Amino acid sequence: MDKLEAVIELAKMSSSRHDERRKYEWQVSLAFWALIIGAIVKKSDLHLQCLSSSYGVLIGALYAFLWLRGIWVANDNDKRLSEHFRTQALNIIQNPLLPIATPPSKIKKCSFKYWFGFLGDWALLFQFIVTAVLILLFYRIT
Predict the structure, then answer these.
(1) Phi/psi at 70 (5° precision)
(2) Nearest-CA neighbor of 32 among 73, 66, 72?
(3) Is 141 exposed, middle or buried, given 0-12, 13-18 or 19+ CB atoms closer than 10 A?
(4) What is the reported pLDDT for 1?
(5) In sequence order, what are the residues at sequence separation of 6 or more whose Cβ sits closer than 8 angstroms to the Cβ of residue 51?
(6) CB atoms within 10 A of CB 107
(7) Total structural domains in the chain?
């Protein structure tokens, strides 16, 4: 396998990891929303009226910072890696003697972007807002 083919395969691999993750990302979110809606509908049967709103905030925060943030970090790392290798493939096409540049580093765990970058992604922000609204409805609907 020559250098160009290897770089193209690395770009495809990073892109496919992102695509595969997106498939189950929405399935998990939809299932979580269905669970909240089910809790809203069956609230009186489940005797959940006394559930403190602080539990709702905790559930929303855990969903956001464990699930959504984790998905976003992995997706962003894969997107940047895929873009890097596509750029390298274009560079090799233009000049086959160019060396392959070092791939970008992963998002650092102690950075602001690692913890809050997902809020800048429209799809994940949408999921966060829908979840927050559903949790709010849980406490508002009697």
Answers:
(1) -60, -45
(2) 66
(3) exposed
(4) 57
(5) none
(6) 16
(7) 1
Q: Residues 117, 72: contact at Cβ < 8 Å?
A: yes
Q: What are the tokens at 75?
A: 């997706």
Can you tell me the distance from the alpha carbon of 62 to that of 58, in angstroms, rounded to the nearest whole number? 6
3-class DSSP state for residue 71? Answer: helix
Range of the domain at 20: 3-140
Cβ-count burial of 114 within 10 angstroms (0-12 exposed, 13-18 middle, 19+ buried)? middle
**Which class for 110: exposed (0-12), middle (13-18), buried (19 or more C-beta within 10 A)?**
exposed
Q: Which of 58, 57, 76 is nearest to 116 (CA)?
A: 76
Tokens standing for 138?
């849980």
Q: What is the pTM of this model?
A: 0.84
Question: In this model, does residue 22 exceed pLDDT 80?
Answer: yes
Question: Strand locations in 1-142, DSSP E?
Answer: none
Q: Are 64 and 32 in contact (CB under 8 A)?
A: no
- Mind listing the pLDDT tens digit for each residue in 69-123? 999 999 999 999 999 999 999 999 998 888 889 999 999 999 999 999 999 999 9
